[in-house]
UniProtKB/TrEMBL annotation:
Keywords: Magnesium, Metal-binding, Nucleotide-binding, Nucleotidyltransferase, RNA-binding, Transferase, tRNA processing. Residues 29-148 form the Poly A polymerase head domain. SUPFAM superfamilies: Nucleotidyltransferase, Poly A polymerase C-terminal region-like. Its cofactor is Mg(2+). It comes from Solibacillus kalamii. Residues 177-231 form the tRNA nucleotidyltransferase/poly(A) polymerase RNA and SrmB- binding domain. This is CCA tRNA nucleotidyltransferase. Residues 247-387 form the CCA-adding enzyme C-terminal domain. Belongs to the tRNA nucleotidyltransferase/poly(A) polymerase family. The keyword RNA-binding applies.
Amino acid sequence: MWLKKRMIPQQWQAAKEVIKKIEHAGFEAFIVGGAVRDYYLKKENNDVDIATSAMPEEIQTIFSQTIDVGIAHGTVIVLDCGEPIEVTTYRTESTYSDHRRPDTVEFVRNLQEDLKRRDFTMNAMALSQSGEYIDYYNGRQHIDSKVICAVGEPDQRFEEDALRMLRAVRFAAQLHFSIEENTFEAIRQKAASIEYVAIERIQVELSKIFISAHASFGIDYMEKTTLGDYLHGNFTASNWAHYYSEDRQVGWAYFCLVNGSDLSLLTKYRCSNKDKLFVKTVLDAYESLRNGMSLVDLLRYDTIVLKTSFQFTIWQNCKLELSYEELVARKNALPIQHVNELAVTGKDLLDWSSKKRGSWIKQTLDAAVEAVLNEEVQNDKQQLKEWFYAFHDEG
């Protein structure tokens, strides 16, 4: 039976029920796309899509609960079976004048016509309810050979959607598959057309490369195919030889680092403000580590930032006097773990002084934090008051 316990039960069981009902109505229906690829690879995938010979209106007749999410392109979400399942009518596509989207879509009743418009052979398989693979383009053979191969003519596939070139690199990084020779050459010849793709779509694919099990392998393909030449930043594989992370923010921080700590790249790739703050903080911490991190810096950075910046020193082959464990132990031994733990506030300083509000308050609080960290004074309000008078020569 094709439904295995190792799969996510709800999605796959719901998909099976949807297929049963479509077939009962006299139409074909199959699981298609990445779910079939991952099923063959024995990987979990909870994004289960169905392709069918039924037209969108016919799907709406078969099921009582549907949502039109892309009915112009043949897609309807079916809700009847407990989980939302995306069902799309077999279709062919016309020319892609903008290298991103088909100018027109034509619905067909033939599965092979639908599958041949897909990007790579491993994504152009279908799975029947009985567990039979429909594999017109040798997808299983290419998976077994660990090869990423375009369906049909590679030039045409990349002319249709230039993002597919970057997807080939991403799959190489995720699966550690090589890119088939003709497919590789087509990417190299068409690399410049990546500039037609929306930067947000590129950012998503780069993020997936950065968190892939073999990110450096993907970056190597960015360099060899020359795709990197047409994107913001430098993609030099040697910089990524020791890199590994499952956190996309860490990936973007490292990308900025190997590009001379160029934070403007985050704006160019439309990264979020949250991403920007994390990356800046990590890069600052990395510089502090390289220059000898002060006690104030240890207080300033949380353990996630410290761990990330320490990883950067390893990936960049920087020698430090302290191990990460020693660094964390030193941080944990600080008299306070956050500036908010300081026993005095700006209001206290105003109460103790005849001065008006001004920048001196922050300067004094910073000095007080440093004095506590250096154990020149205990984090006690009365002792800090005495320290304050001595500091300002007012006592």
